[in-house]
């Protein structure tokens, strides 16, 4: 396509939202008009399904649940008075709690004010709060936030180390919709242990954000935690950033959550319009479908050219991949759907893997996130008439051009600046695009059956460990792995047993191993007395 036609195509496909100062450009995706007309019936269906979802249909059939994250930003859309009240009451409770924490009206027993937050959660109970903290936390936040999002002992130590002297002014948020996620439970137990070691009762420092009647909620009640906030059954983990999960930590840091909600609401209104060209989420879904042939054949590389948006692609990874990565479609056919998402930030990644993107395997499409405002205040010149921000902008435009010339397609999302409203709008945009795309490819975007398999297998390994240690203690003599597996009555699990023993030995956990660990057949294992 020559320059004039490309410019025309750019203008024909440019979506602009005046209120948000937001633009979406899908002109560098090489679809033609025929593709767009062929997709129209699929979009008609997607718009209709979305309307039903927003009206309170059971849009997550496998779990028998409504899907209500859009109501969080406009409670009046919720399908009944009780839900409306739940949304409004939760928001009011978050506002009140954050205000009282900031003023010191709610204070820890042994310090004048809370100064730090330790946020414990994983997946949808961590990625949104982490993304938003990185994007929006003030340079000097009301409270400094720290995250525990794993069950890695070294990681836990690293997070807790700077907090050891500040436990008396730390507020611990334990976030889990189900209230039973092992990594989060473990993090909470480790945090409690830190409080116990410092002789500080943990209850007045701990806050739960969790589903009704979950183990976590019951624990919070039983242990007299400072507060508990609800996570609604009809909000999925990966779409929970604008529920208490994201709003409470944001408000505590001094981020304007009402502006986040307002930005999301404006984007919701724009992405509710059942007209492809007037709906930026539909345009995104169209681009994704075109890129991957409706089968996720190409990965989505997300490159925000703004440091504060570094965690956006990580956040999107869960939103997109857990929603769209499905074996079965809604009719039960095996489809192996999904779109892989990765990316960090530009221009940094240009000095890492963009070489492959430009010249290597063409298995991706790009999403550039452009931010128009460089910074508050003026910029020094790094060359005559040129600033750092000009470089950043030039590098984005140049990379887009260089990729396009080599048949690598891209989408460009432009926002005026990174602030509460635009971040809320970005979250809403991608939530809706995922929902629409799911209907285009006929899958349930709101369940995650595949996650359970690994969790069940892990639980099995831990049960096996208990069995193996008991068998060793009973034997009271060195056993080979085969003997140990026989004694534990689990001969088919011998490889797991080897790994369990190797891990226990590495951590001085009550087993002695004689022999070379690289020669499993020769090992003799004994329980330490
Ligand atoms: O909030 P939680 O119930 O602790 O869940 C945390 C995460 O765990 C699971 O593995 C799910 O796949 C995620 O969708 C969820 O966000």
Automatic annotation (TrEMBL):
Record's catalysed reaction(s): alpha-D-glucose 6-phosphate = beta-D-fructose 6-phosphate
Domain of life: Bacteria
CDD domains from the UniProt entry: SIS_PGI_1 (cd05015), SIS_PGI_2 (cd05016)
Cytoplasm keyword on record: yes
Known EC number: 5.3.1.9
Residues the record marks as active site: 322 (proton donor), 351, 455
Record SUPFAM superfamilies: SIS domain
UniProt keyword annotation of Translocase present: no
EC main group: isomerase
Molecular-function annotations in GO: glucose-6-phosphate isomerase activity
Xref: Pfam families: PGI
Main location: cytoplasm
Keywords: Cytoplasm, Gluconeogenesis, Glycolysis, Isomerase
Associated pathway: Carbohydrate biosynthesis; gluconeogenesis; Carbohydrate degradation; glycolysis; D-glyceraldehyde 3-phosphate and glycerone phosphate from D-glucose: step 2/4
Cellular location(s): Cytoplasm
Function: Catalyzes the reversible isomerization of glucose-6-phosphate to fructose-6-phosphate.
PANTHER family the record matches: GLUCOSE-6-PHOSPHATE ISOMERASE
Family: Belongs to the GPI family.
UniProt-recorded name of the protein: Glucose-6-phosphate isomerase
Gene name for this UniProt entry: pgi
